Amino acid sequence: MEDSGTSEKQEQRSKNFIYEIIDDDLKTKKWNGDVHTRFPPEPNGYLHIGHAKSICLNYGIARDYNGKFNLRFDDTNPEKEDQEYVDSIIEDVKWLGADFEDRILFASDYFEQMYEWAVALIKKNKAYVDDSSADEIRSSRGTLTEPGKDSPYRSRSVEENLDLFERMRNGEFPNGSKTLRAKIDMGSPNFNMRDPIMYRIVHEEHHRQGNKWCIYPTYDWAHGLEDSLEGITHSICTLEFENHRPLYDWFLDELGIHHPQQIEFARLNLSYTVMSKRKLLQLVKEKYVDGWDDPRMPTVSGFRRRGYTPESIRNFAEMIGVAKRDATTDIALLEFAIRDDLNKHAQRAMAVLKPLKIVLTNFSGAEELEAVNNPEDPSMGTRKIIFTNELYIEKNDFMENPPKGFHRLVPGGEVRLRYAYIIRCEEVIKNSDGEVIELRCSVDHDTKSGTGTSKKKVKGTIHWVSAENAVKAEVRLYDRLFTVDSPDSDKEKNFLDYLNPESLEIIEDALVEPFLKNAKPADRFQFERNGYFCVDKKYTTDEKLVFNRTVTLKDSWGKMN
Ligand code: ATP
Ligand code: MG
């Protein structure tokens, strides 16, 4: 990520409460001037746009304060984790531009140290082995108004606890038969302090540790230890961990080890989107989408395949800022961010998605015309396009019986062809079903774009490709994956009930400008009037060119429909 300039950065600093905390820490020398953040994903799914927000925030802080940023896998739950997720997460974090240098770290590498610290707590009589079942533990936890009940195993001796815990580790007991719990306070008003579980028995192969372990630490026990071991200064997490903070603090204080400050911020929620990894996994597993990187998924890999740039996602993260209260962000803001970026950088091209043939009755041969590559960036230059007497325009740029205000082609009417001439529709040719299959048009030779002598003006300009040299392509248009803005807020209904059956439209016979045949996977373009597109990396082959529509142009609906 580039430096965003001093004044902008300062403004941003005063806006974001986490920067204020860090500024204070630097003044009081709380961490000897260090700033060290981390992004701690569990490798149980692909990263989504909410994770991207957290990455941008954590990395952005490290960058802005010349600090450090760790990528740390919180791989403490072998049943759900997989190397595939580890690999995808590394790729996504790199793609977003967050620089963790050589620090790809794994919580599972700390298991031995965590075990020793658990033993230390047992020795302090601050942890005990509990034989209660999960149900028994749950039912003795009490309620908001009633304290919990002490476990019958709570008063075990230190010696017995040490022995049992070692035997848990050695694999003597089956899953679920014992846990290690912190001995805190079953009467605490904070549920998280009512003797929380530190270890569970899980006989399961771990993707990195193999069968070395059959006890696995819980999030609450492990997370602070991971932060502490890495010398993290500011442990930034989402709001649901706010009432876990006393426990985070308790463990670190009892052990007397480096104690980072946990800071909570509001998670990102996006309209028309589900963000829970469990639900995203279900969409993938049950094949409602074409994998984690389906361009309709709110995953980083989905956005990448769809044509989003890392800059646009980083800009989006800046725009939404960091808050202390949960809210839902309009997905239109994310679309704005990508449009804004592509508008500046994307090469323009003409592509006809649903072609209608035009035959020019008074034009022959081939003429070279000049087209602008990007009106926002003259340095991108111009290109040559070949104009011939057979062309294709969009079907819906012609109407036989147009409503008032239709400024494109109509029988007897005129329209300008982009970068070329004004043409007049002389004759409409239909097939036996009455469907319009061809238009015969005449060219006004004095109206050539830029150099024509005629002062004639028409209201509409439409794009076209030449029948002689256009290249066939498949085009995939995406709509929102869900039909309502909060698909998982209705507790009565399943989010799947709101899937949009029209979220993907595949157009097999689009025609694009000839230079696009050399486009490479992930190359991005603006197809004039049709939106921003990129070459699909999954389905494009030597024989077949496939484009994804990244996003529509702002007013494309008004213009096209
Ligand atoms: P789960 O823990 O249920 O698997 P998760 O989305 O919390 O799901 P993690 O891998 O634990 O997944 O998340 C890694 C980091 O990303 C955490 O620090 C978490 O706070 C942050 N994060 C997750 N979802 C969001 C979100 N929607 N907005 C901002 N940050 C998020
Ligand atoms: Mg989590």
β-strand percent reads 15-25%
Bound molecules: adenosine-5'-triphosphate, magnesium ion
How many strands appear in the DSSP assignment? 27
Task: Give the name of the CATH superfamily of the largest domain.
Answer: HUPs
Count the domains: 3
C-alpha-based Rg, rounded: 30 Å
The total count of helices amounts to 14
Described by strand count, sense and barrel closure, the largest sheet is: 7 strands, mixed
Topology:
Elements: H1 6-15, H2 17-28, E1 36-39, H3 49-64, E2 68-73, H4 83-95, E3 104-106, H5 111-123, E4 127-130, H6 134-139, H7 158-169, E5 179-182, E6 197-201, E7 215-217, H8 219-229, E8 234-238, H9 245-255, E9 261-265, E10 268-270, H10 277-285, H11 300-306, H12 310-320, E11 327-329, H13 331-345, E12 347-349, E13 351-352, E14 355-360, E15 366-372, E16 382-388, E17 390-394, E18 414-417, E19 422-430, E20 436-444, E21 461-462, E22 465-466, E23 471-478, E24 504-512, E25 524-527, E26 531-535, E27 546-551, H14 556-560
Parallel strand pairs: 1-2, 2-3, 8-9, 10-11, 12-25, 14-20, 18-21, 23-27
Antiparallel strand pairs: 4-5, 5-6, 6-7, 13-24, 14-17, 15-16, 17-22, 18-19, 19-20, 23-24, 25-26, 26-27
Helix pairs in contact: 1-2, 3-12, 8-9, 12-13
Adenosine-5'-triphosphate binds next to helix 3 and strand 8.
